[in-house]
Amino acid sequence: MSLLLLIEQVLNGLQFGVMLFLMAAGLTLIFGVMGLINLAHGSLYMVGAFAAAAVAGFTGSFVLALIAALAAAAAAGALIELLVIRRLYDRDHLDQVLATFALILIFSEGTRYIFGSFPLFLDIPAALSGPILLPGGIYYPLYRLVIIGAGLLVAAGLFLLIARTRIGVQIRAGEADREMIAALGVDISKLYTLVFALGAALAGLAGALVGAIQSVQVGMGEPVLILAFVVIVIGGIGSIKGALVGSILVGLTDTLGGVLLPPLFATFMEPSSANAVGSAVASMAIYILMAGVLLFKPSGLFGGT
Amino acid sequence: MKLKSLIAAASIAALSAGMAYADAHGGKVKVGMITTLSGGGAGLGIDVRDGFMLAAKGNENLELVIEDDQRKPDIAVQLADKLIQSEKVDVLTGIIWSNLAMAVVPAATAQGKFYLSPNAGPSALAGKGCSPLYFNVAWQNDAFNEAAGSWASENDIKKVFLMAPNYPAGQDMIAGFKRTYTGEVVEEVYTKLGQTDYAAEIAQMRASDADTVYFFLPGGMGISFMKQYAGSGVDKNVMGPAFSFDQGILGAIGDAALGVKNTSHWSKDLDNEANVKFVADFQAEFGRLPSLYAAQGYDTALLLQSAMGKADVKDAAAFQAAMEEADFASVRGDFSFAPNHHPIQDIYMREVVKEGDVVTNKVIGVAASAHQDVYGADCKM
Amino acid sequence: MTEPLLKLSDLKKSFGALKATDDVSLTLLPGEIHALIGPNGAGKSTLIKQIAGGLRSNSGTVEFAGRDVTPLGTVARARAGLGRTFQISSLAMEYTVLQNAVLGALGHDGGVMRFFRPVMKNRPLVDRAMAALVRVGLQDQAAKRTADLSHGQRRLLEVAVALTLEPKVLLMDEPMAGLGASGSKRLTGFLDDLRTQAPILLVEHDMDAVFALADRISVLVYGRVIATGTADEIRRDPTVREAYLGAEDAA
Amino acid sequence: MARETLLNIVLFALLPVTALAAFMLDEPFVITLVTKAAILALAGVGLNIALGLGGLVSFGHAAFFGLGGYAMGVLASHAQSYTPIMESPFLIEGTKSMLVIWGVAIVTGGLAALAIGALSLRTTGVYFIMITLAFGQMLYYFAISWPAYGGEDGLSIYIRNEFPGLNTLDPIQFFAIAFGVLAIVLFIASRLAKSPFGLALSAARQNAERVETVGITPFRLRLVAFVISGAITALAGALFADLNRFVSPTMFSWHTSGEIMVFVILGGVGRLFGPVAGAALYILLEHVLGGLSDFWHIYLGLLLLLVVLFARGGLIGTLAGREVAHD
Predict the structure, then answer these.
(1) pTM for this structure?
(2) Domain residues of chain D, as ranges?
(3) Is beta strand B159-165 parallel, antiparallel or unpaired with respect to B212-215?
(4) Do chains B and C touch (3 or more CB pairs under 8 A)?
(5) Reduced to 3 states, what is the DSSP secondary structure of residue B284?
(6) How far apart are CA C162 and CA C85, in angstroms?
(7) Strand B343-355 versus strand B358-371 pairing type
(8) What is the CA radius of gyration of chain A?
(9) B298: three-class secondary structure by DSSP
């Protein structure tokens, strides 16, 4: 394999990782502040993608579609926080898993009820389509570079938000000690709704950005959700930094594993079965990575003790 | 628009419920349809159902019970048990997916029920596992790919890059293509089932010296790949079996699919009387363009009704003989059954074009005429 | 001279910059009650955890019955005969009082990997558990859910569970807390008898009890033992008076 | 206590009574449904040992369910095609005997649970939930992409496996087998809960520090519980495969793990008969709601949400009131 191709694959892994970060950041934030496992996070991703597709269909504007995705996902997030999620903060993880599993069922079938069973159309804007030539002679899709840029921007924004703003102070206080934050006179339920909506908006943004290059369909959030969980478990639940590192790790492992493992197996097996075995191992690679990390660091790379 | 079509579907469903509970059953045929109506992939099942009901509309001798398998094999098996044991149906049909068919068909035929496949044609059921009671009205899994392979060989396509998900149907499809293709296979890539991002594979395509990419990626996987491929600037030709370029899917891919060649046994622009009527009726009834699944559902009902006119379903041998005649006007043109009860039919090459605002398929030639699968030799019945 | 049953040598534990345990050495002799006193935050509970095995020391050793148990965890130290009661009751709250005591007897027995015979029908176990409850006076509460006990009763149950282990040494972290005057008095009398069975390292705030019971007293301030001696010696020790008891006297 | 016992008896009797009634009325499909409920209840009973007794929220029990299924699939498919599973170093043949298949399923499930548990139990809380999920997913992808036993297509077994003295293809007789297994396992589970092991395991869930202090290692208790739990769920998987005469990777999917968990929760966590109530209710809902609407998952979701939010203790908890301490 040529070096150029390898670099391109690393870029692909990076882009996949950045997209995962948008999902994982919200999940980990919600867990860090409220101690909640939210399986329905993938549904918010789907809501974002469908809202974007619907608005893009009406207006033809990708920018409006993105705004709609953010708004719809944040609204959906705030709504379920108010109706359901806030009753779960004091419950054990089992109840949280089940209640949010129930929300997945409701969201998925509800979306199918509204939008039908066929995938929706959402395309990238003409200005961002096509490849550009990177230094070194790599042609790379512009839109994917934009995703990498947008993701890193969001990451930077999140770090600033948490390090520099009043809300950030409250979030950090909430992570450290939930009783303390109430003592600080912060309206805790408002803060929770806000954080939840923020996490939901990030998921919605990811759904819209990715929906443009993938398929906008019911159930699209579930594979991503599982990957996002793998990410935050690897990174350490509650840690934004862990989510970033974990996303990049998972993105690279998944992409490079799929590319490199089959030829690797071919060096000592006959080609046809090497391909099958290599692909099989590649599809398990990130789970093997996660199990490996947890064996050595049972609370993830950046998790507390 | 989507909402409207849904309401139409709902009203048809209500109609079918009425049909299901129509009284007596003597001399009539009771059909159990197991198909995917909820969850992922429901679009395909809905089309098969709608196509079938369109062709069966008004036939009071045909009683239809519809069940939703949720695309889960275990549910499908239980529904088959229910339809056979409780509803006492004579004929089963409707299954979309190969793996569900493998779960249901052998057991159903073992219990003496006819099964008509409106989609899915796993090789096991065409060869060693064939049955006198099993009729495939769609295609054997390899058919479109074998046709594509010979078309590619004849049309000066020298180097191909092959891609499919890593599961049996995917491996079958690629094997089918390679069976008839005489050029060079540059690379063969198997992706994860359900994969949504193909950046890595597209990079490999860019780096390879293939002139054509041939892929099989059903459902959302194909949509994702085509959108990403179009944005990548890789300008190799793209080919595939029809499943990734069906009407329901083209709407989601949009212009990115334009120019793609795909093989199919049916296209909505096929110029035969039956097809013109079918396309017009379907649009009038449901307000959307029919898909190839709808066409298969429609043909399935036509075949069944042709046999009902000739024999009583209680007389299995006579009914089987009547079915083997395939005496109906298929929307695909000429249609007959090979000895293994799989179709002998023309496979067309289509190209994705834009008609006005609608992205759709147009037939550009015949890829394989009177195509028949290779597994029939193993079928002893 | 008798060998100490429990011997701590130069134990250290720090959390970041905070030295919670700073070079602590002390011994527990057969038949004695050795009280550990000190102001809040002096590191008494941390030290108890280090002795019981729940918290690893940075350095130093813990010897128990002549054997170095420093590398062992809680379970192994418990099995070696180190009984313990907690400052904040640590019991299986859904269980009955008797079940908690049976759990202790079961732990002592070691037959936990038995899967079929109902444990509450195992006469010898239940009898031993009941005997322990009788000794602390909880026999009438045996069928009550532990969650429904008062705080004082839970402290007694802790002691009873520790007794079912037939320990060689008892570590008790504030057993008197929440008992009330009469309860304390009763428990004081009970511990007085208990010392012949197993010596006790007693952390306690109730100074009446400490001075009534302790053969020796160690005073812990900021993680260091500033004095060890008999009750009289400690009372008279000027550093102790200054650092700690002064406040008590004034009160 | 008496109320829950009474309820349990009624619930337990409900299965055979429904099956017999269906037999009299010649409704074989209803028997099949009741059989399915009994088998899924069995899977739930398995999970409940880890979840209810041990407090181990395993989101990966589909792994064991699927392994049990594939134990049946692999053995029976080899017997069906008269090809040995392996010839060297020694010959292993396929089999159509249910009893042998069950044995293999139990051992396979138990060994897998030993390996997965030994690794996963090093973590706690959310990490445990997620690492068990990861192991389930690993097996899922493995099953899909491993071509030898059908991959995504799964394996069809045309004739149900054999049980001495019974015709397993007759729905009512197969129900009797499934119900018999469920009854035996329920009995074992009830003894287990009251055994020394059960006492210590449940104590470790309530307060691990307490258990350590009396000289018992919680890790070992949990690992053994996980192994027993996995073995029972694998047994259920083998029966489920026999019910359908079919196995596929779907049995490994995380939805399956979620569903088994739903049975346990719907019925009541930690209640002996909780999974029985939960599985029966689930099957009932699937067929009542599924008949009413293509979108029945919405109603299932709403119901589940209501149970989690307002009816803690599940169906049995709601009907029987607060759990009384085991005596």
Answers:
(1) 0.84
(2) 2-320
(3) parallel
(4) no
(5) helix
(6) 7
(7) antiparallel
(8) 20
(9) helix
CA–CA separation, D238 vs D215, rounded Å? 38
The amino acid sitting at A278 is G
Exposure string (b/e) for B229-262, b if CB count within 10 Å is 16 or more?
bbbbbbebbbbbbbbbbbbbbbbbbbebbeebbb
- For residue D295, the chain B residues in CB contact (below 8 A) are 38
Burial (Cβ within 10 Å: 0-12, 13-18, ≥19) of residue A190: exposed
ipTM above 0.90, yes or no: no
| Nearest residue on chain B to D149, alpha-carbon basis | B168
**Chain D touched by A257 (CB under 8 Å):** no
Cα–Cα distances in angstroms (integers) from residue D251 to residues D62, D165, D301, in the given order: 6, 29, 21
Tokens of B236: 């190799």
B167 pLDDT more than 90: no
CA C42/CA C247 separation, integer angstroms: 15
Q: Give residues with Cβ within 8 angstroms of D262, minimum separation 6.
A: A98, A101, D278, D282, D304
**How far does D138 lie from chain A, in Å, by closest CA?**
5
Contact B160, B238 (CB under 8 A): no
What is the residue whose two structure tokens read 């080609």? A271
Cα B33 from Cα B36, distance rounded (Å): 10
What separation in angstroms does the CA of B19 have from each of B23, B53, B61, B282?
A: 9, 10, 10, 19
Q: Where are the domains of chain A?
A: 3-296
CATH code of domain A3-296? 1.10.3470
Question: Does the pLDDT at position B21 exceed 70?
Answer: no
| Top-tier CATH class for D2-320 | mainly alpha
Tokens for D253, please give them.
Answer: 């999917």
The residue of D190, D206, D213, D326 whose CB has the most chain C CBs within 10 angstroms, and thus the best one to mutate to test that interface, is: D213
**Rounded distance, CA B167 to CA D140, Å?**
12
Provide, as residue numbers in chain D, all residues whose Cβ is less than 8 Å from the Cβ of C120.
194, 199, 326-327
In sequence order, the 6+-apart residues with CB closer than 8 A to the CB of D322 are D313
Handedness of CA A39, A45, A48, A50 (dihedral sign): negative
From the list D196, D202, D203, which residue is nearest C111 (CB)? D196
Q: How far apart are CA C183 and CA C177, in angstroms?
A: 10
- d(CA A211, CA A120) in angstroms, rounded, equals 9
The label of the residue with tokens 């952390």 reads C203
**Closest to D46 (Cα-Cα) out of D305, D240, D318:** D240
Strand blocks (E) in B192-281: 212-215, 237-241, 261-264
For the CA atoms of D138, D144, D149, D150, the dihedral, rounded to the nearest 10 degrees, stands at 170
Q: Does A264 touch chain D (CB under 8 A)?
A: no
Tokens coding D157: 């077994």
Encode pLDDT of D8-20 as tens digits: 888 888 899 999 9
Strands C216-221 and C224-229: antiparallel
What domains, with CATH codes, occur in chain C? Answer: 1-81+167-251 (3.40.50.300), 92-166 (no CATH)
Give pLDDT tens digits for C34-53: 999 888 778 888 899 999 98
CB distance C202 to C34 below 8 Å: yes
Tell me how far apart the alpha carbons of residues B313 and D23 are, in angstroms, rounded to a whole number.
27
In sequence order, what are the residues at sequence separation of 6 or more whose Cβ sits closer than 8 angstroms to the Cβ of residue C120?
Answer: C98, C99, C102, C126, D194, D199, D326, D327
Residue B272: other Cβ atoms inside 10 A: 14
Instruction: For residues A100 and A21, give the distance between their C-alpha atoms in angstroms, rounded to a whole number.
Output: 21
Length, in residues, of chain D: 327
What is the rounded distance in angstroms from the CA atom of residue D52 to the CA atom of residue D47? 8
Q: Is residue B226 helix, strand or coil?
A: helix
Predicted pLDDT at D42: 97
